[in-house]
Design brief:
The structure holds two protein chains of two kinds.
Chain A: E1 4-11, H1 16-29, E2 33-39, E3 48-56, E4 71-74, H2 77-81, E5 92-96, H3 103-106, H4 115-123, E6 128-132, H5 134-140, H6 147-159, H7 163-173, H8 179-196
Parallel strand pairs in A: 1-4, 4-5, 5-6
Antiparallel strand pairs in A: 1-3, 2-3
Chain B: E1 2-6, H1 7-17, E2 22-25, H2 33-38, E3 45-48, H3 52-64, E4 69-74, H4 75-91, E5 97-103, H5 117-123, E6 127-128, H6 133-150, E7 154-159, H7 160-163, E8 165-170, H8 190-193, H9 197-220, E9 225-227, E10 230-237, H10 239-248, E11 252-256, E12 259-261, H11 265-273, E13 277-281, H12 287-294, H13 313-322, H14 328-332, H15 357-367, E14 371-373, H16 398-409, E15 415-420, H17 421-437, E16 443-448, H18 477-484, E17 488-492, H19 497-509, E18 514-519, H20 523-526, E19 534-535, E20 554-557, E21 560-563, H21 573-577, E22 583-584
Parallel strand pairs in B: 2-3, 2-4, 4-5, 5-7, 6-7, 10-11, 10-13, 14-15, 15-16, 16-18, 17-18
Antiparallel strand pairs in B: 1-8, 6-12, 9-11, 19-22, 20-21
Classes of the chains: A alpha/beta, B alpha/beta.
Chain lengths: 198, 586
């Protein structure tokens, strides 16, 4: 049985936790043992959110090790960049083309890194970096909050497993009135990769 | 059926399934979700107490009455509850009582990283430590059973990486047995429950004898187990550290301890006899290591690992490779090829939210050049630049007493204490009484956002709503302070900077002790928003005054400041501070 190690990185309020909950449930449905760990203490106050999700036949540690990440899901460019040391040659990075400047940048005391700089940082270890305009896709669907589910749609095409299972778990974990919206967001994510892989 | 649960949810589920009927807690990361989750089950009473000591006394009362009870708190909460912890160990109880301590190695959200396993030894009671969610559920049941069997409270230790990690838990279709319909009578037993010296002296020998019995019991408990493997290395571990060590040393022989105090000495000796060398893998203090060394058994432990911070599989690999316990290659292959936080990535510290009422208060305090004795809550973020307006922060309720002490020591500076509403109910009332009783001119500012915000918006005695969403009588802060005897009290809106500034100057000039209630609901809780203002780039002189508010929607552009309307809450503080009137609302 294969094992999968995921890291989801973003900023508080981006839906990173919902996405990691969905990912953990999908793993369970696909027959894996699953563990998940997140640090979110001050996340609601604009801090970083990191979530580790692991699927495998037997999973001990809830934390992914350095050099072991199979998939890094970056909800925000800068936050994705911080995980370069956890990547390996076979890693795939799926990254939302979206910037939330941290305070030092707002105050003009630091520069937000360029897209190219983040890409080369990640490419130093990871084999593949997939850029996705998930926020724009979500806004087009009428709600920026579903950007995370767009990213999950992209991820699902890379990870594999029955689309029905992914779709079912997404719908189960979101509020009933947003089910249709999230279903569309997931579908958009699945189409993004097949046509717009950069 | 299996369900994915966090450690905290599993503890709550375990409590429910094992017949716990009363739960009490004060919110504190990483323990908060235990009671939130427990409160949702049928036929249980769950409450937010004003602080952890009250919560523990409530749990003790329920257990005295013969009902199973659970109290939960973060590690530093046990310090607050410690007085009650020590007496209930002496009295024992009738119904099972489990006390959950959620420790925070690495201080993800705490002021220290104390290792609460020490409390088990200090207060002389048994402690269990689960290593995943399934164990968390089961260990609650075991704790309650032990509690009743040995007439003692039992502590259950979690850490952030258990509380906030998720793994599958076996759930049953059936709920627990329903509560008995006939109410029992309270069983009176003065000698057992009245801890005057004469009675307490009779209890102490029983406590020592009980510990010996518990140590014997620990030898037979299936949660303490030897997991056979390669006999060249034996590893002793518990909790989250066990999982990390298992990941790094899949072949080793393990002694997995589910009960972390008292230790099973015979089992440890048997384990030691079967392996060439022993490594103790534990976070923070050498709690196992010291006890095992006292048994005369040679182990390695804190000569390999630090006493500071969390362990991770990575760190275990690194330290054991350095100590020659792990092949060098096995480490190097895993180590990063790149710097984990290169300079080009600016850090992202947490900050006060857009629209936060605390921001207006700290702006006014900074402008008034006062020394601010702060407290625990979101408003500790007032210490971060660019506001930099909080000068101490130690523990819950410390602000008011520290300010009084500074004033009695005598300084030239103007000083204030700043404490949040929930923190004030927790530990601020007594020091406030002290300022009045012992006569200092300190101004105490209660920064009232009408919720326990930092831990994720829990209700408190001032909100009029209980944990189980019942309407209740709200304690009125102003009436409470007036009732203590304060005469100079003002309530004002921290969004109105000029008014708050005037009120502050008036209070600072006054000789009598006084209270300002700066009242503005947490916008993250109310979700209220106003129209975002705009900056006229022609009028903006790029002076940076608005940026000194430290508000994330204010963005530095080339030669002017812009407001991100998606992030902006529309509080209007920037309109008030702009010296040239460049910021306006349409």
């Amino acid at each position: 049985m294969k094992k999968f190690d995921f890291i989801l990185a973003g900023v508080g309020g981006q839906g990173t936790i919902l996405a990691s909950n969905i990912l953990a449930e999908v793993g369970l449905e696909l027959g894996y043992e699953v563990k998940k760990s997140e640090i979110l203490g001050m996340a609601q106050r604009g801090g970083t959110v990191e979530s580790h999700v692991r699927w495998g036949e037997k999973v001990y540690s809830p934390l992914v090790e350095e050099g072991e990440v199979d998939f890094l899901l970056g909800f925000e460019m800068l936050e994705a960049g911080r995980w370069s040391s956890f990547l390996k040659e076979e890693s795939k990075v799926i990254i939302n083309r979206y910037q939330i400047p941290p305070p030092a940048v707002n105050l003009g005391k630091a520069k937000y890194p360029k897209e190219k700089e983040i890409e080369s940082l990640l490419k130093a270890t990871a084999g593949e970096v997939i850029w996705v305009d998930a926020l724009k896709t979500a806004q087009d669907l009428g709600n920026p909050a579903v950007a995370g589910v767009v990213l999950l749609g992209v991820l699902s095409t890379q990870v594999g497993g029955s689309t029905e299972i992914w779709q079912k778990v997404v719908e189960r974990l979101v509020p009933v009135k947003f089910q249709e919206l999230n279903r569309k967001a997931f579908q958009m994510g699945r189409q993004v990769t097949t046509t717009e892989k950069i | 059926m299996k369900k994915i649960m966090t450690g905290n949810e599993a503890i709550a589920y375990g409590a429910y399934m094992n017949g716990v009927r009363v739960g009490s807690a004060y919110p504190g990361t990483p323990s908060t979700e235990i009671l939130e989750s427990f409160a949702g089950y049928p036929h249980v009473f769950a409450e937010w107490a004003p602080n952890e000591k009250v919560a523990l006394d409530v749990g003790i009362g329920a257990a005295y009455a013969g009902t199973r009870a659970m109290v939960a708190m973060k590690h530093v909460g046990v310090n607050v509850a410690a007085d009650s912890l020590f007496y209930v160990v002496y009295t024992g109880l009738k119904g099972g009582l489990v006390i959950v301590t959620a420790d925070d190695p690495n201080m993800h959200s705490s002021q220290n990283e104390q290792d609460n396993r020490n409390y088990a030894k200090f207060a002389k009671l048994p402690m269990l430590e689960p290593s995943d969610s399934e164990e968390a559920k089961q260990f609650v049941g075991l704790a309650l059973e032990m509690s009743e069997k040995f007439d003692t409270p039992v502590m259950l230790r979690s850490v952030t990486r258990l509380s906030h990690s998720s793994s599958p838990v076996e759930v049953s279709k059936e709920g627990p047995p329903l509560p008995p319909e006939d109410l029992p009578l309270y069983e009176r037993n003065i000698q057992k429950y009245v801890m005057v010296p004469a009675n307490a002296r009779l209890r102490h020998p029983l406590i020592e004898a009980r510990l010996k019995k518990l140590a014997e019991y620990a030898e037979t408990l299936p949660v303490n187990r030897i997991e056979p493997g390669d006999d060249t290395l034996g590893i002793i571990a518990a909790g989250a550290a066990y999982q990390y060590a298992r990941e790094v040393f899949p072949e080793a022989t393990f002694l997995k301890l589910g009960m972390v105090y008292p230790l099973p000495e015979k089992m440890i000796r048997k384990f030691a006899a079967g392996v060439e060398k022993i490594l103790v893998v534990e976070e923070l203090d050498p709690f196992f290591e010291e006890q095992i060394r006292l048994m005369g058994i040679e182990v390695r432990g804190k000569d390999v690992f630090p006493v500071i911070g969390e362990l991770t599989p990575n760190l275990i690999r690194k330290y054991t490779a350095k100590a020659g316990l792990l092949g060098e290659n096995s480490y190097k292959n895993k180590v990063a090829a790149t710097d984990s936080n290169p300079d080009i990535l600016p850090i992202r510290p947490p900050m006060l939210c857009p629209g936060c009422g605390h921001r207006g208060l700290f702006h006014v305090l900074r402008e008034a050049d006062v020394v601010v004795f702060g407290d625990i809550g979101c408003y500790a973020l007032g210490a971060a630049p660019p506001l930099s307006a909080v000068h101490t922060c130690g523990c819950m309720g410390a602000s008011v007493g520290v300010a009084h002490g500074v004033s009695k020591a005598g300084v030239q500076d103007r000083i204030v204490a700043v404490i949040g509403d929930s923190t004030f109910f927790h530990a601020g009332i007594h020091p406030l009484i002290n300022t009045l009783y012992n006569g200092s001119s300190v101004t105490t500012i209660i920064t009232d956002n009408s919720i326990t915000a930092m831990t994720g918006h829990q209700q408190h005695p001032g909100t009029g709503i209980t944990l189980q969403k019942q309407q209740t009588k709200a304690v009125n802060l102003e009436q409470l302070v007036r009732g203590i005897g304060f005469e100079k009290i003002d309530t004002c809106d921290p969004y109105d900077l000029d008014n708050l500034s005037q009120v502050l100057e008036d209070h600072l000039a006054s000789e009598q002790p006084s209270v300002i209630i700066a009242k503005r609901s947490c916008v993250l809780y109310t979700r209220e928003k106003d129209e975002p203002p705009q900056v006229d780039p022609e009028e903006c002189t790029d002076c940076g005054t608005c940026l000194e508010l430290g508000c994330s929607p204010l963005l530095q552009e080339e030669g002017y400041v812009r407001i991100d309307p998606l992030l902006c809450n529309g509080c209007g503080l920037c309109i008030q501070v702009c010296p040239v009137g460049a910021i306006t609302r349409e």
